[in-house]
């Protein structure tokens, strides 16, 4: 489908290019498997860091495509579910945040079918088929990059049930404490659902919703990563990231997925611009493709 001379890649439910090679057999999938220790760490702590997802060529292509799709004059701009050239509530900082890049460019489309990502995602979801929920871009420019406040992803996603979701954050740059790497609170995925803070507001706004016991366990663990490496986390794991005061940018793409079978829990549109899906109906169709089918 084309509109304004731009292809809407959401109409393609398989790779449109050769950036990611699809495994031809079970043995080729196995080389991407997480270890038992990695899976156990995820379930114990609610996150898993530093999983290699992209090689140097894939990184270069995605960085170049990011420059194009971050332009508000991109011919496919209307395809975004959300687009914030600056979502930061602090006027001295900038946080670029957008949902829907998979619809605008072949690289951000095909990364959904990255076997490194899909193998790990299926394992962490309990060896289940993997369905797409939505993607995000987060960019913090050098010297004045804004924060992403401490939050639980599922607090923004209660319009879908059951809670069988998974987030993969993939860095397009080296990520350090100095430029605002992601930080986690180990074990917080067992705290239950908390109130929803403003995503780009007060970094520590979540503290007002925590019990005294939870506050005593609020000990952030920064996860520094090399470019092309990613972190996976549970939908209830508290995470956030600070300002970028360094000389280098901190750019990342995020892929949010669900176990196949998750349903709409609202009669309203699940994403802006996407047709409503009746409450109780399984996520499927153009905007929620099945990425890895373990039944076939």
Can you describe what's shown?
With 296 residues, this protein is an alpha+beta fold. It has one domain: Sandwich (Jelly Rolls). Helix content is 17%, strand content 23%. It has six helices and 16 strands. Strands 3, 4, 5, 6, 9, 12, 14 and 16 form an eight-stranded antiparallel sheet that branches. The protein has a four-stranded antiparallel sheet with strand order 7-13-10-11, with no helix packed on it. The radius of gyration is 18 Å and the shape is globular. The mean pLDDT is 96.
Oligomer: single chain
Q: Would you count the extended β strands for me? A: 16
The CATH topology assignment is Jelly Rolls
Helix and strand content put the structural class at alpha+beta
- Share in helix: 10-25%
The backbone outline, from C-alpha atoms, is globular
- Largest sheet data: 8 strands, antiparallel
CATH superfamily: q2cbj1_9rhob like domain
Per CATH, the architecture is: Sandwich
Number of domains: 1
CATH classification class: Mainly Beta
Q: What's the rounded overall pLDDT mean? A: 96
Alpha-carbon Rg, integer: 18 Å
Low-confidence stretches: none
Question: What proportion strand?
Answer: 15-25%
The span between the termini is: 28 Å
Order of helices and strands: EEHHEHEEHHEEEEEHEEEEEE
Q: So how many helices? A: 6
């Amino acid at each position: 489908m084309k509109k304004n001379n731009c292809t809407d890649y959401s109409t393609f439910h398989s790779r449109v290019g050769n950036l990611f090679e699809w495994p031809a057999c079970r043995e080729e999938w196995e080389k991407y498997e997480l270890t038992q220790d990695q899976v156990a760490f995820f379930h114990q702590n609610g996150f898993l860091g530093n999983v290699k997802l992209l090689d140097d060529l894939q990184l270069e292509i995605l960085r170049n495509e990011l420059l194009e799709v971050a332009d508000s004059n991109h011919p496919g701009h209307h395809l975004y579910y959300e687009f914030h050239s600056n979502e930061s509530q602090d006027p001295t900082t900038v946080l670029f945040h957008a949902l829907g890049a998979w619809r605008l460019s072949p690289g951000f489309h095909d990364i959904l079918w990255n076997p490194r990502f899909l193998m790990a995602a299926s394992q962490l979801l309990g060896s289940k088929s993997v369905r797409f929920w939505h993607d995000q871009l987060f960019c913090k420019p050098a010297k004045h990059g804004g924060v992403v406040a401490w939050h639980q992803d599922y607090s923004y996603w209660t319009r879908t049930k059951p809670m069988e979701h998974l987030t993969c954050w993939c860095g397009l740059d080296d990520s350090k404490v100095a430029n605002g790497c992601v930080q986690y609170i180990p074990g917080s995925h067992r705290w239950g659902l908390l109130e929803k803070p403003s995503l780009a507001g007060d970094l520590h706004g979540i503290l007002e919703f925590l019990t005294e016991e939870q506050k005593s366990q609020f000990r952030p663990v920064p996860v520094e990563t090399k470019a092309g490496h990613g972190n996976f986390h549970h939908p209830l794991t508290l995470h956030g990231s600070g300002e970028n005061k360094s000389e280098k940018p901190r750019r990342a793409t995020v892929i949010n997925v669900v176990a196949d079978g998750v349903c709409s829990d609202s009669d309203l549109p699940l994403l802006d611009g996407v047709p409503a899906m009746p409450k109780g109906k399984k996520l499927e169709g153009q905007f929620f493709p099945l990425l890895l089918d373990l039944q076939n």
